[in-house]
Amino acid sequence: MSLQVVLHRLTPSGGQNFPVCVDLGLAYLLKALEQNGVEAAYHDGVLHPTAADDLLARYGRDEPWLLGLKLYSHQIGPARALLRRLKDRNPRIVAVLGGPHPSGLVEQVFATVPEADYAFVGEGEPGLPRLAREGASPGDWRGEVPGLIWRDGETVRANPPDYVADLDAFGEAPWDRVGLAEYLPYRTPIRNAALVPIHTSRGCAFHCTYCMGHRLTGHRVRYRSPERVVAEIARLRRDYGVESVSIQDDNFTSRREHVVGFCEALLRAGLGVRWDCLSTGVRLDALDADLLRLMERSGCHALSLAVESANQEVLDDMRKGTKLTAVAETIRLIKRETRLTTNGYFILGYPTETRRTVANSIRFARRAGLDYALFFLFSPLPGTEITARLQRAGRLGDIDWESFQYDAPSVPLPDLSRGGLKRRQLWAYLSFYLRPRAFWRLLRTAAGAGQRGDLRRRLASLLGRRASRES
């Protein structure tokens, strides 16, 4: 007998911040389960903050059911607290982890979340329906479930993951089943519209040292046909009045023909829907004047650009495969040929950096002509090449995942302490956004999205935060 499955997105805690939008990964898992005859529900703790007792009251205090948690590495504490409370009250619940954290740690995942019964590495659609059907029965089926991480006595085993080969056959996200209409009132900055995510491809062929995305979706890129994607956007427009969609691909611009096909299909459809690549950065070396103009004509209004560093030696160590001179020229090209809004992504504190290289990136962000910039502190994500390298070199010990946070400095640089790096991040934001034009642009953007009060709170938090002096 199949277990009822509840796919749950954790409620943010302790200053964590997640956008109010449909979790597209969980939405596709919901569809895969229901296509395989498994009763399933989608529950978003970001949209509807939820405690353990709420889940028990809704899905069962006595009978068995399967809880699927999408887990990021900074959510270990809240996830363990939720699972402990649920299992104290209903020991028959089967707890399953998916998402970035288990895909990065694999066999070590149960050491960080011992309350979990199973986990998945890679895409969950091939394996989760089988687990739901078999999860309450004994037998040797566990070794046959693609991507399943499971306990075999004292040994933790991980089955090879499988990946959805034909994205067109898999179809559209089940927008009605995940309650898209509830998300639409939440307007987001820059878009000045709700964040409605959409996939046109999965996978990333690149090998950046700091990224573990390939562990989730693989290195082989698979594409949806542009016509199918545009048909889905047309239904979103017709059925929900959607004005804007956000491409959530691992790397949307990695194949020029795919981007051209998507833009031309949108132009033929004449939907009048805007789109952006703000949530995931695009590679600058894939852009040229003709492509940029076509993207803009088809409705693109904003791009996030994965610059990462303004130092060639750092880019080379990251294995980005980009040249800084070409990055700067492409940003100038975007501003010269289009009216696209640009948002730059930068990583501060990558382990081969110095005080000088951090300063170079901050200076580059101000001078490059970007409209917005985000300055992330380097995080040693599980399953990445750079994390393994740091641990082999003795620069990074065992990570306390329960206290792990993305916005906390993790590795001191040779001439810059953790506290000094945090102060450089504060200076990066202040020096970028306190320029008159950038400041008023930010204020107008927040006001247009109805988030001026939220902006004030964020600025107050940033300005009031004291950098740690830990070295």
Give an account of the 3D structure.
With 471 residues, the chain is of the alpha/beta class. It folds into 2 domains: 4-158, Rossmann fold (3-Layer(aba) Sandwich); 184-463, tm_1862 like domain (pyruvate-formate lyase- activating enzyme, Alpha-Beta Horseshoe), CATH 3.80.30. The protein is 39% helix and 17% strand. It contains 19 helices and 17 strands. The chain has helices at residues 24-35, 52-59, 76-89, 100-105, 109-112, 128-134, 167-170, 180-183, 213-217, 226-240, 256-269, 289-297, 312-318, 324-337, 355-367, 385-392, 418-433, 436-448, 452-464; strands at residues 5-9, 40-44, 66-70, 94-98, 118-120, 148-152, 155-158, 187-188, 193-194, 197-198, 201-202, 222-223, 244-247, 274-282, 300-308, 341-348, 372-377. A 7-stranded mixed β-sheet has the order 2-1-3-4-5-6-7. It is globular, with a radius of gyration of 22 Å. The relative contact order is 0.09.
Summary tags:
alpha/beta, globular, six-stranded parallel sheet, 19 helices, 471 residues, 17 strands, pyruvate-formate lyase- activating enzyme, Rossmann fold
Question: Looking at the structure, what is the overall shape?
Answer: globular
Q: How large, in whole angstroms, is the Cα Rg? A: 22 Å
CATH evolutionary superfamily of the largest domain: tm_1862 like domain
Largest sheet: 7 strands, mixed
What strand line-up does the widest sheet have? 2-1-3-4-5-6-7
Structural class: alpha/beta
Beta-strand percentage range: 15-25%
CATH architecture of the largest domain: Alpha-Beta Horseshoe
- Count of discrete alpha- or pi-helical segments spanning 4 or more residues: 19
Taking all residues together, what is the mean pLDDT?
91
N-to-C CA distance:
55 Å
Q: In CATH terms, what is the fold-level topology of the largest domain?
A: pyruvate-formate lyase- activating enzyme
Which regions contain 5 or more consecutive residues with pLDDT less than 50? Answer: 459-471
Tell me the count of domains. Answer: 2
CATH class of the largest domain: Alpha Beta
Q: What is the tally of beta strands?
A: 17
| Fraction of residues in H or I helices | 25-40%
